[in-house]
Each structure stands twice: as structure tokens, then as C-alpha cells.
Amino acid sequence: MSSLAARMGDLARERGHLAAAGINPFGVCMDEVTTATEAVIGGRPTILVGTNNYLGLSFAPRAIEAAVEATRRSGTGTTGSRVANGTYAIHQRLERRIADLYERPEALVFSTGYMANLAVLSTVAKPGDTILLDADSHSCIYDGCRLSGATMVRFRHNDVEDLEKRIRRLPKDRTGDLVIVVEGIYSMLGDRAPLAEIVEVKKRHGATLIVDEAHSLGVFGAKGRGLSEEAGVLDEVDFLVATFSKSVGTIGGFCVSNEAGLDLLRYTSRPYVFTASLPPPVVAAAIESIDMMEKGTHLRARLWGNVEHLHRGLTGLGLEILAAESPILAVRMPSEQALLACWMGLLEQGIYVNLALPPATPQGVYLLRCSVCAEHTREQLERVIHAFSEVTGRG
Amino acid sequence: MTLETLYEVIARVKPPEKPLTAETRFVDDLGLDSLTVMELVAEVEDTFDINVPINLLPEIHTVGELAATIDRLRSEQHE
Predict the structure, then answer these.
(1) Does the pLDDT of residue A1 top 60, yes or no?
(2) Which DSSP category does A278 fall into?
(3) CATH for A61-294?
(4) Could you tell me if A132 and A167 are in contact, meaning their C-beta atoms sit under 8 angstroms apart?
(5) Is B54 on the interface with A (CB under 8 A)?
(6) CB-based contact A195:A221 (threshold 8 Å)
(7) Which of A177, A178, A273, B5 is most buried by its number of CB atoms within 10 A?
(8) Cβ–Cβ gap B35/A152 under 8 Å
(9) Tens-place pLDDT, residues A84-119
(10) Does residue A193 contact residue A225 with C-beta atoms inside 8 Å?
(11) How far apart are CA A142 and CA A20, in angstroms?
């Protein structure tokens, strides 16, 4: 058997090339994270503008206290699956809290958002069904669809007409079900799904609609329930999946549904059954953070004020931002070389943003991906804008 | 017929260095990466008015295999 490095020759060469230039964008180590918006990286105090921590709840005192208390009371981990020794009262309390938030009979909690999608997609769709998925869907959606054994048909990103066209092309003698999968906000470009129109397509064709609100939970809607709430289509979403690892500030995932039988996933879904359940401190923090999120109108107001401020500042420098619809501001760079140089330059100025390039982005799209936090101060955002003007030579 | 049209579609997405044949391999001969493959698939879908389910892609290595798949999908989806 050949070595890993030999089998992944192209990747090894590419990594070597970047390493020789002193750049390892995917190997950044946070020496210390001190607040929701600050860290020390390579010994340098750094403003974090690439964490998906939209509401800044990872440092909320209430959540920290609850996590500490839960650890003292119940230990650091459950050491078992939800179907064995890993269901504690606190897991059921979290599920009840989420079910109440969405006014649904039941909610299921998973150990990560990734596994929530694997679990739901692989169980909801079956061989013989057809899944229509947005081409820009996250990897866990692709992987979940693959696990289902259903036929996977991609439609062009956010293109409802293309979705319709693909449904029209399906074999006339098709017998399986139709499943449509979209996200609320797409993580790389930061644009929103046209949910109301997608719901119309779903209704017209009797399809099941799954919406992944990973990046839109906490950000949209009066109660922060996501783009489905904001678009007024919560009742039309058959399965809503989301994660605790962004706005909720911890880790884990969940699914709520109108369909009877969601509970059966607890027995049939491998990503639910064959992994350990969330540790008590994580669950305790999630319960507190979901409460703060639901009542977080002030947090959302601060977040959107910050989004507007940063957007104005960056476009004022003449930079191109791909979508102005979410707390993800993807700043487009003309080339890979410019992207790497600017990303390094920002880091040297104490600003951390995400670097996004193909295949995570469409071909030829190079992005400095910023995610805004409710806890960013205006002074921090001004420093970010200033650093952008320095590294891009604008302003 | 399918093959001739397919040659044109491929040439639009990535102009080949050598003339295309049914035996031309997408990765080894044309050097297509995963993103270009998806772009090619989208072009094929629109040109032939078919859906190419992405589950089929791992089985398709050559231009000839793609042409055969297109013919099969057209008969399935247009009957």
C-alpha cells in the first residue's frame, strides 16, 4: 500500500508550496481565546472576524455558569450513546426547550450539526426517492444525501427556475418521493435562500422540504428561529435542522419536524445511535443560550447594526462584497495570490478572517470571509476596516 | 451523434490538448478537477435537457461512458 502522502500527491505538493511561502491558512492556532471577539494568535492580540459566533454567546456569563455547574454535578462527559447510558434529564430538557421554541411536538438533539444532517437526510430519504439539493450545499448535506441511497440531483445555487426544470426532467414513471434540501444562509457567500419561492415549488410538487438553518439560527426572526421564521414559512418546513456551534456558541445539532414519527430516528438513525451524546456542560450552556437567543432582540439589533457598519466601511474602500444579506460578508479578491497576501497581511495586523477558495467556493472565486458578531465594538470594526485598507492598498 | 455533441460541450468547458475520443479519460487525460467536473455536468444537463444524478459520477471515467449514460438518461427522462 502506498503512503498517504503518495496517494494524495497533488494535495501534498500544494501544501508544501504554501508552507514554503510561510502560509498555513487552515492550521491557525489560537494560543488563547479571551472573549467572543478577541484572541491571541502567534503571540499577537487579534480581533476575531471569522468565528460564526454571531450573537457572541460563547462567553455569556449565564451559559458559562450553567456549564460549570453541570460539570460539577454530572461530570465532563456521558461516555455513552443516547440509546444506552447517554440520555440524562438535561438532554430531554434541552429537547423540550427546542420543541417549545418551534411549537412542535418534539425535537431531536445530535452531537454535532454535521451529524444532525447526516441523520435526518439519511433517514428521511430512501433508495428510489429523489433529492434535489442546492449546488452550494454544505458537505454534510451531500454526505447525508449519499448515505440515504436516494438519487441526488443538484440544482443551480438559489435558482428556483432551475429547480423547477430539474423536477420537470424527472422520469415520468418515477414512484419515489421528492425531497428538496436548502440552507437558510449559505456559509461561504453569505447569501439567503429564496425560501418563500422554494416553499411554492415544494407545495406544487408535493415534495418534502428540509431546511438547514446552521448559519441563520439566532440571526433571523423575532425569536431567532432562522430564515424560515423571517420568511413566514416555518409551518411549511417539514424538517428544520440547525446547529449549536454558531449562534448558540457551543456544539451539537437538532432537528424539529411537523411529521409524526420523528422519534423513530432515535432507533433508525446511525449518526444518532452510534456516537456518544453531548456532555452535560455543553447541554447546559445550550439551554441558557437558546433562552438568550429567543429573547435576544437587542443582540440581533446590535448584530445588524455591526453588519451595516462593516459593510459600509468595506464597500467604502471600493471592495466587492458578494451579498449584503447576512452577517457573513464575503470580500472578493481578484486572485489566489492577492487572497493569500491580504489574508496574511490582515493576520499580521491582528485581524483574523476566514480564507475561502475553490473548491469551497465556486471556480475563480477567492474570498476573505468575515463573520460579524453582536459583541464587536465599533472601535474593533474601525480597526478591521483600517486593516483592510492597508492590506488592499485602498482608501 | 451524442458523442459529437459531447465533444463540443467538453471543448467549451475545457479545450483539450489532443483530439477527443470515446476513450479519453476525464481526470487522467483532461485533468479535470472536481469543480470543472461539476461545471461540465451542468453544461451536459442543459445541452441534452436531462438531469445527471451525481450518484452516477463515480462510475463515469471516459467520454464514451458519459455518452452512453446520456443516451440512457434521455430515454428514461423523455419517455
Answers:
(1) no
(2) P
(3) 3.40.640.10
(4) yes
(5) yes
(6) no
(7) A178
(8) no
(9) 999 999 999 999 999 999 999 999 999 999 999 999
(10) no
(11) 33
Pure H helices in A217-321: 227-230, 265-268, 270-273, 280-294, 297-316
ipTM of the complex: 0.90
Considering only CB atoms, which chain B residues are within 8 Å of A153? 51, 53-54
Do the Cβ atoms of B55 and A135 come within 8 Å? no
For CATH 3.40.640.10, list the domain ranges present in chain A: 61-294
Minimal C-alpha gap between A109 and chain B (Å): 29
Sequence length of chain A is 395
Nearest chain B alpha carbon to A135: B38
Look at B35 and A359 and tell me if their CB atoms are within 8 Å. Answer: yes
Q: Which three cell numbers mark A181?
A: 434540501
User: Is B33 near chain A, with CB under 8 Å?
Assistant: yes
Say which DSSP state A36 is in. T
Fold category of A3-55+296-392 in CATH: Aspartate Aminotransferase, domain 1 (3.90.1150)
DSSP state letters, A164-195: HHHHHHS-TT--S-EEEEEESB-TTT-PBP-H
Using the beta-carbon criterion (under 8 Å), do B33 and A171 form an inter-chain contact? no
Beta strands A38-41 and A30-35 are antiparallel
pLDDT at A39 over 70: yes
**How far lies A388's CA from each of A29, A282, A385, in Å?**
22, 36, 5
Per-residue burial over B59-78, b = 16 or more CB atoms within 10 Å of its CB, e = otherwise: ebbbbbbbbebbeebeebbe
Cβ(B54)–Cβ(B18) below 8 Å: no
Number of H helices, E strands in chain A: 15, 15
Asked if B36 is an interface residue toward chain A (Cβ–Cβ < 8 A), one would say: yes
Chain A positions touching B76 (Cβ under 8 A) are: 171
**pLDDT, tens only, A181-204:** 999 999 999 999 999 999 999 999
* Contact check, Cβ <8 Å, A151/B77: no
Residue from B38, B50, B51, B79 whose CB has the most chain A CBs within 10 Å, to mutate: B51
> Which of A143, A153, A169 has the most B C-beta neighbours within 10 Å, making it the best mutation to test the interface with B?
A169
- Within 8 A of A135 by CB-CB distance, chain B residues are 38
A263-266 CB contacts, 8 Å cutoff, 24+ apart: A263/A106, A263/A108, A265/A108, A265/A119, A265/A120, A265/A123, A266/A82, A266/A83, A266/A108
- β-sheet with A328-333: strand ranges across: A320-321, A328-333, A366-371, A354-356
